[in-house]
Design a protein that fits this description.
CATH topology of the largest domain: Aspartate Aminotransferase, domain 2
Bound molecules: ligand PLI
Strand content: 5-15%
CATH superfamily of the largest domain: Type I PLP-dependent aspartate aminotransferase-like (Major domain)
Shape: globular
């Protein structure tokens, strides 16, 4: 696709052949549902949701080719032909020589962390992700945020807010020594920063830095195709390069990767750990049989590996990614035009509302983003997710709540699922809720799970 074509209006490169009917609920029903869910949108029943923007994970619409791929499942316990197809597809599109399938991304994170992280180690990353950091911590490591400062400022319009700050890395090496840093975890299109990309130039500079310090780069490649789109649109020299080539180049600058295939690759379940080093692969095979399954299926059915191989190829098509990010930008621009405070620039997989700006009357320890997410559900049945203090959890050493600068509500778009008319309903609802923002109350925990508390935590409203 040329830069000129990329600027033309986007439209979906597919048509709809089957639909899933949705239940419409009343406001009374939704008020009752959110109370029963303890003001946590994860605890709602999906049947009570009209437009589900909770996540883009495992909720995309598979193509006719992917569904056909399911029929080609080779459900042999060992050596399934679908595994070899997946392995070859990963090498072709992502450059990694060895692939170890896992049931989803966090399965890969567990194996990776157990192999590479020793107690007392430090794992720098371009912002934390919930499950990634937890696995690093469970292995005895400490996460260190080395993303550029702009990433923590919702209003900054830096085009590559996912970039790594090499000065922060230098400081860390000075403080702890490079032998205490097994690898740097680099996410493409940083989820918690608002779906923000890293530039190719920054990835190249990081590669050089890591070579100088003998430190690995492990790529959280969950949304690498969306990152590649932003590089194509924003970075000098990449305007005429196909997405597939940019994805390949990004991956080949890293030593290995964890993948949640439920996002970019549009399957309902699956993931993998991939690498180029034979010894690392052997170590991963040793562990995958303990936690996931044999090294040629690792927790995935043969049919799911087949759908994944097909999804990977579809995910790097220029027309697909232009429409995918185009829809996110449509929603983001519509909200921005109506004066709604959102994270800038608009991200690749979601639009993030700035709950601190929208609900200044709620203190961060009363979880404004959680309260806003609950209020949005009540208004029109749109389900979204908190990405602020609740998600950030507690510091493992002090036990104190983290106070992240970003207190956000994420409106996440499943791939190939909703129409522009759905987006218009969402915009209308967000504006209505914001017009009545004063009536939204803060929350406190009534139940706080030990790990990943945002998934199952329960809350009640506070009156002061
Ligand atoms: O949900 P998993 O276990 O397949 O993948 C974990 C995971 C790892 N890295 C990143 C950047 C993610 O976004 C991620 C999962 N994200 C979810 C579930 C989300 O709603 O964003």
């Amino acid at each position: 696709m040329t830069q000129h074509e990329a600027k033309q209006v986007w439209a979906e490169p597919y048509k709809i052949k089957m639909v899933e009917l949705l239940k419409m609920t009343t406001r009374d029903e939704r008020e009752q549902a959110i109370r029963q869910a303890g003001y946590n949108t994860f605890l709602l029943k999906s049947q009570d949701v009209y437009i589900d923007l909770l996540t883009d994970s495992g909720v995309g619409a598979m193509s006719d080719r992917q569904w056909a791929g399911l029929m080609m499942g080779d459900e042999s316990y060992a050596g399934s032909s679908n595994f070899y197809h997946l392995r070859d597809t990963v090498e072709k599109y992502y450059s990694y020589k060895y692939t170890v399938p896992t049931h989803q991304g966090r399965g890969a994170e567990n194996i990776l962390s157990q192999i590479l992280v020793k107690p007392g180690d430090f794992v720098p990353g371009n912002m934390y992700f919930t499950t990634t950091r937890l696995h690093q911590e469970l292995a005895g490591g400490t996460f260190v945020d080395i993303i550029i400062d702009e990433a923590h400022d919702p209003a900054s319009t830096h085009p590559f807010k996912g970039n790594v700050d090499l000065d922060k890395l230098d400081e860390l090496v000075k403080r702890v020594g490079s032998e205490k840093i097994p690898y740097i975890c680099v996410a493409t299109c940083v989820n918690m920063a608002g779906g923000q990309p890293i530039s190719m130039a920054n990835m190249k500079a990081l590669r050089k830095w890591c070579d100088q310090h003998a430190i690995l780069i492990i790529h959280d490649m969950t949304r690498v195709a969306e990152n590649a789109y932003f590089i194509q649109q924003r970075e000098q020299g990449y305007g005429d390069m196909p997405i597939a080539d940019i994805v390949y180049e990004l991956c080949s600058l890293t030593d290995g990767a964890t993948m949640s295939s439920k996002k970019d690759a549009m399957v309902n379940i699956g993931g993998f750990l991939a690498m180029n080093d034979k010894k690392f692969y052997e170590d991963a095979c040793n562990l995958v049989v303990v936690y996931e399954g044999l090294h040629t299926y690792g927790g995935m059915a043969g049919r799911d590996m087949e759908a994944l191989s097909i999804g990977i190829a579809e995910s790097v098509c220029d027309n697909h990614i232009k429409a995918r990010v185009g829809q996110v930008e449509y929603l983001g621009n519509a909200l921005k035009d109506r004066g709604v405070s959102i994270v800038q620039p608009i991200g690749g997989h979601a639009v993030f509302l700035d709950a601190k700006a929208i609900l200044p009357h709620i203190r961060q320890d009363q979880f404004p983003a959680q309260a806003l997410a609950a209020a949005l559900y009540v208004d029109a049945g749109v389900r979204v997710m908190e990405r602020g203090a609740v998600s950030a959890g507690r510091n493992k050493q002090t036990g104190k709540n983290y106070r992240p600068k970003l207190e956000l509500v994420r409106l996440t778009l499943p791939r190939r699922v909703y129409t522009q008319a759905h987006m218009d309903v969402v915009v209308e609802s967000v504006c209505r809720v914001i017009a009545n923002a004063d009536s939204i109350k803060g929350l406190r925990f009534t139940y706080e799970p030990e790990y990943l508390r945002f998934f199952r935590g329960r809350f009640e409203q506070v009156d002061d």
